[in-house]
Amino acid sequence: MTAIDLLEEAVNLLRESPLETSVTYLIGAAPLTLAFLFFLADMNRSPYAFEHLPWASLGLALLFVWKNSWQAVFMARLYRQVSPSETGPANPWQAVLTQATLQPLSMLVPLPLPWISAFFRNVAMYAALGRPDAVRAARKQSVYATRQNWTVLWIVFLGSLLLFVNVLIAIVLLPQLGRSLLGIEGDLARLGEGIFNLTTAGVAAAITWLAVDPLLDAIYVLRCFYGESLVTGADLRAALKKLAIVIFMIASLRAQPIDQQKLDQAIDQVVHQREFTWRSPRPEGAGPEGKWVGWYRSAVKLLQEARDLIWNKIREWLTPEKDRSGNGKDTAVNRKTMLTLITLIVALIAAGIVVYFLRRTRRAVVAARAVVAAAPPVNLADESLTADRLPEAEWLALAEQWMEKGDFRMALKAIYLAALNYLSAHDLVSVRRWKSGLDYRRELARRARSRPELPQIFARSLAVFEQGWYGRRAVDRAMAQSLADGFDEMRARAK
Asked: What angle do CA 275, 259, 271 make, to 5 degrees?
């Protein structure tokens, strides 16, 4: 049996397994996965995590034994599903004892060798089956078809890597899509590039492992079954049992009269189901007619003609003149070379487009932050005005102008918007029209956890601004200068 055939049969085995078997695996895997993610986030972010590191590690180790014990029961259920003749009594306590004894050895020998991985999974299954010779049988089956084992592990590794990348991309893009399409402004969407961290990678790795680990269990169950069948002939007995069931069903059907009309109707109904119609050839004769059908055919024909025209032009451009006239003996550019050149040209064009837009975006960002240019006048009394309308320097210049005119209330608003623009430029807040001062204060407290004095300074400055802007008290130069001093202190703390 090839590695591809083994993988296909393992997938079918998991699909045919009852719900109780899947729940058996999740009972052990779900607590360990959640505990591991909490442990990873706690040790990565909490400054007091190392105070309870020994107890957290001990709890994680106990959950690891718990997971492997239920995994052994899961593999035993799969083995009985493949080999119904396995009627020995299950022994879960033997599985727990074996896991608690041998799994620490698997952590001490973390070599990615196929026979080591096969041994520890095999011994778990045989212990759950109640075999007295679990270790000897596991060692024997671990060296069965080593080349097949290598190939399967490489295929699963590459598939796991691809799945991990896809899951990680989905975790990163879903919050942004929710904000763009549905207007959901959540904490994950505000992180931006900061979502690429160790915790996110741990979540993606955990999801990938939950998808791949049962497949590996099914693979090693089948390897043990076929390895033992070389001696016991269990695979032949299972096949003969299935054949006997089929023969019995056929004999039962022949003993009963068959309604030919109902049989034809059932066959016609199955053939016309959607999952089979796409494989059927188109019926002969005239196709459907109508205005929309004609437009569709015209559009398809136009696209095909455009494709053929572009392809012929590229071939003419790449083919030498002597080959087009038929005078040359050998073709200078063959089909493979032509396809390579076309691929290279398309890749260069795509790279040029990407570089152009990246440079354009960066130039726009630099211009918005570094260049103080003439901007259209803004109405500071407008409540929908946001801090990203002008750069920080222009807000401060505007505040100086209003202070010279004696309107300290407008100067107060300009200084407040300059502070928000500064915090936004340092990724401490994200400026939005719907946010209030309380929203900005909570967001700053969440993002600046390592600098607790910064949210406190912002809270004092926010109280000064709201008292002057929304309150009934007249705003004087002292209040505006107090807000400016708070902004200077906040900027010094941020640096």
From this structure: 10
